[in-house]
Amino acid sequence: MYISLVNDLDGVEIEIEPDILYPGKYGGLVVHFNSENREYGKISDEVILNIKFADKQKQGEFIINANIKEDFSLLTPEELANVPKIAFKNKTLIIKGLNPEELRTEVIEIENIGTRDLYIRNIQTLDERFSIDPVKFIVKPGKKSSFNINVTPDTGMSKLKSIITIISNDPKQSVISFTIIGKVDLPEGSSSKNMTNNIQVEKATNIVKSFKGNDELVILDIRTAEEYNNGCIEDAVNIDFNNSDFRKIIKFMDKQKTYLVYCQSGIRSKKAVEIMSEIGFKKIYHMYEGVEGWKASRLELTDPNK
């Protein structure tokens, strides 16, 4: 087995040990991350690997997530007693009454209850439907300031969800994250009948239960055959997204049925549901937390070969 990197990432180096993997042996990936030339904030890089074994070649991927913040370890007790302190109310922000393709702006307030200037180093989200302005500013001691979250829902989406991350120079709360949820009002007879719903594991289990014994639901596992055979959601069918004929195979499936689509971590399934939407599937539920989320919820997987 040979493993090699497909994409070059700034500040990221991968060591593959060993680079040749013999039958019955284990290997590993060592990830080196250099944050020296990076701005403060949250980063998320997708690492794509070429995997060759025998006469076959496949691609795999994993995500590097990191929060780049200041090093406060050298501060003295006196310095730590005289620092900025961020006060932030929202753990979850729910925005109602969103309209497809219409811009909405929400104002979020931050207060500095410390004794020194609070530097907001970066505010960001990895969801491109949300934008933030400004992403850097200063809040004086005892004062408040704010930033805008702008969101424009895509046509056909009933719900939006994202994590907003705030990086500051508050030593005790240098990284704060909160969830933003948007509920979209879809007009009667609109593309709500032809849309993808991004759902969590809990919602997925409820859907599976509600369709139990009903062949109108197709549980679609788009991982590799090896991943599928190591455990899948009960009654799931397997179509490998990495198969070059994936689009052709999907085209022959019944577009009127309801589909629950998942992969290992949500990366491949996100791309898969985009293709399915383009082709014309009417109702898709995307379990974006994948099998990793399923396992984290302590739910069982089934052996498809039994």
Assign the CATH architecture of the largest domain.
Sandwich
**How many structural domains are formed by the residues?**
3
- How many extended strands? 19
Q: Kindly provide the radius of gyration, computed on alpha-carbon positions and rounded to a whole number of angstroms.
A: 23 Å
Secondary structure: helix percent: 10-25%
Number of helical segments? 6
**Rough outline:** globular
CATH class designation of the largest domain: Mainly Beta
CATH level-4 homologous superfamily of the largest domain: Immunoglobulins
Low-confidence stretches: 189-194
What string, H for helix and E for strand, traces the elements in order? EEEEEHEEEEEEEEEEHEHEHEHEH
- Secondary-structure content class: mainly beta
Biggest sheet layout? 5 strands, mixed
DSSP strand (E) fraction? 35-45%
Q: In angstroms, what separates the terminal alpha carbons? A: 29 Å
Write out the strand line-up for the largest beta sheet, numbering strands in chain order: 7-14-13-9-11
Mean of pLDDT: 85
The name CATH uses for the topology of the largest domain is: Immunoglobulin-like
Question: What is the secondary structure topology, with strand pairs?
Answer:
Layout (H helix, E strand, L loop, with lengths): L1 E4 L6 E6 L10 E6 L7 E13 L2 E13 L8 H4 L5 E2 L4 E7 L5 E9 L5 E7 L5 E4 L3 E3 L4 E8 L7 E10 L6 E10 L10 E5 L1 H10 L6 E5 L3 H5 L7 E2 L7 H6 L6 E5 L4 H13 L3 E5 L2 H7 L10
